[in-house]
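ok trying again, last paste got cut off:
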Amino acid sequence: MELSNAAAWLESLGYVHTDIRPPNLLLDSRDHLKLSDFDSMAEIGTLADGAAPPWARVLGPEAGSEEGTFGLNGARSEQFAIGSILYCMTRGFEPYEDEDFGHTESTIVIDRLQHMMFPDLHEGHLDRIIERCWKGNFVLLKDLAVKTKLLRGAVGLPRAASFETGYRLERQKECQRLVDLGLLVND
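nice, full thing came through this time. structure:
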């Protein structure tokens, strides 16, 4: 729930993270998930550079003219990564990590993902969400966030508290200073 909420919040600002994968997910002392490493963040609708499988996929025939590319940055690419994260969290390993493809492993995984040949899933609520993420069924990330709020236990979990106004304003000024220095300038 916290990951999909973070992605939906970025979407509301017109951005996507583009690098959702386990090393960029942190847990605080209360086991709340924190999304980190925003250096690859991109505007929605721009060409996606993609990431390593299984956190991104080269699009297949279903994408029409975008086939063979990572497509555009947006809900489709982000939810795919979130689906793979959910799979990893519920299985304890990455999609296809439990199979031995020998020296052609990355090529086989890329091909399988491109042709939407995903690992087997079950009938549970989480697996249905994983499947919908992998197939790009959520039009917006906020739709995914709404769905994950319905997961058992999600409603009872404490919500993130807002920062005090003074602290927030200081952080906002620091962020603006970094932007003014050119931190977010595209090359």
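cool. The beta strands are 15-16, 25-27, 33-35, 42-43. The first helix runs from residue 2 to 12.
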